[in-house]
Amino acid sequence: MSKPSLTDLKAFQAVAEHCSFRRAADLLGVSRSSLSHTVRSLEQRLGTRLLHRTTRSVSLTESGERLLRRLKPLLSDLDTVLEEASSSEGRITGKLRINGSEGAIRLLLQTVVPRYLALHDGVELDLVAEGRLVDIVGQGFDAGVRLREAVPQDMIAIPVGRDMRFLAVASPRYLRGRTAPETPDDLATHQCIRQRLPSGKLYRWEFHRNGQDVAVDVPGALTLDSSQLMVEAATDGLGIAYVPEPYVQAHLNEGKLVTVLEAWCPPIPGLFLYYPNNRHVPPSLRAFVDLLRELQM
Q1: Predicted pLDDT of residue 90
Q2: Are 256 and 236 within 8 A, CB to CB?
Q3: Domains of the chain by residue range
Q4: DSSP state, 248?
Q5: Which keywords has UniProt assigned to this entry (predicted)?
Q6: Does domain 166-264 have CATH number 2.60.120.620?
Q7: pLDDT tens, 149-167?
Q8: pTM above 0.90, yes or no
Q9: What's the mean pLDDT in 272-282?
Q10: Does domain 91-161+270-296 have CATH number 3.30.450.70?
Q11: Which whole number is the average pLDDT over 181-191?
Q12: Which of 1, 82, 95, 271 has its CA at 20 to 30 Å from residue 113's CA atom?
C-alpha cells in the first residue's frame, strides 16, 4: 500500500472538520471535484470508507472518526515544528487563522493588523468575520475575538481594546414630537429596531443601573441581523437601535444620532483575543499576542 501524502491527509481533515466539500475546498483553495478525488484516492489507499456522502450532507464513518482523532494532534504538531524551524532563523512564517465578529475583525484591521503584517511579511493572516460563535479548535482556527462574556472559560484571553458600552440611539428626526424614553419600560411605546442573533433568536436589550438588571423584549416593525444596518436604519429615522458604541460614535459626534437611556448603559468588558490554554502556541500567534499586549501599554 502506497503511503498517503501530507496533502491527502490535510484534505481529509478539512472535509471532516467542516462536514462539507464546498467549505473545505474554499479553505484549501482547490476545486470541489479535485478535493473529492483526493479523498476517494485516500480511501482506496487505506482500503476503508472514511466519509458517508449524500447529496446534502457529509459525515464521518467510524474509521473516519478514528483517523481524524489521531490525525489532528499529529498535523497540529507538524505545523508547529515547521513554523518553529522557520522562526529559528529570525523570520516567522506560516498561516494564522482568527475568527471573530465583524466588529471585532474591523477593530483588528484598524489597530494591530497593519503593524503585524509589516513586521511579519512571511505570515499569511486569515481573518474570518461571522456572527455565530464557533468552536475555534474544531473549525481549525488559531484564535478567536469576541466580547469577554462570550469567551469560553477554559481559554486564555487577552484584551483587544478598552471596556465598551451598548448604546440606545435614535435620530433627532425620530424623536421630534415624541417623548424620549427615560426607563427601559418606556421603550414599549416606541418603534425599536430589533436584532436577530445568528442563532435565529431575537436579542433582548439588556440594561443595568444601580444594581438593577433589566432585559427588554422590545417592540418594533423592523428586524435586522447587522449592527451596521441597524445604525443606518436609526440614522434614517426608522426607530431606536441598541448597538455597540464604536458603530455609532461618528454619528453621535456629527449629531446624526443622539443617545437615550444613557444612564442605563454602563461599560462592560470589551473584546478579547482568546486561544486554547492546553496547546502549544505557534510562533505566528505568539507574535500577534505580543504585539497586541505592546499596543495596550
Answers
A1: 64
A2: no
A3: 6-74, 91-161+270-296, 166-264
A4: H
A5: DNA-binding, Transcription, Transcription regulation
A6: no
A7: 888 888 999 998 888 899 9
A8: no
A9: 83
A10: no
A11: 95
A12: 82
**Cell reading at 185:** 419600560
What is the CATH class of 6-74?
mainly alpha
Q: Which amino acid is located at 212 in the chain? A: Q
pLDDT of residue 108: 92
Q: Where are the beta strands (DSSP E) in 174-250?
A: 193-195, 205-209, 212-216, 222-224, 241-244
Q: Residue 213 CB: number of other CB atoms within 10 A?
A: 8
Measured CA to CA, the distance from residue 40 to residue 134 in angstroms comes to: 28
The values of phi and psi at residue 269, to 5°, are -55, 135
Model confidence at 82, in pLDDT bands (50, 70, 90)?
A: low
Check if the beta carbon of residue 21 is closer than 8 Å to that of residue 58: yes
Same fold? 91-161+270-296, 166-264: yes
**pLDDT at position 134:** 83
DSSP per-residue codes, 56-87: S-EEE-HHHHHHHHHHHHHHHHHHHHHHHHHH
252 pLDDT more than 90: yes
Rounded to 5 degrees, what angle do the CA atoms 253, 258, 261 make?
Answer: 130
Question: What sign does the CA torsion over 16, 22, 24, 25 have?
Answer: positive
How many CA atoms does the CB half-sphere of 124 hold within 13 Å?
4
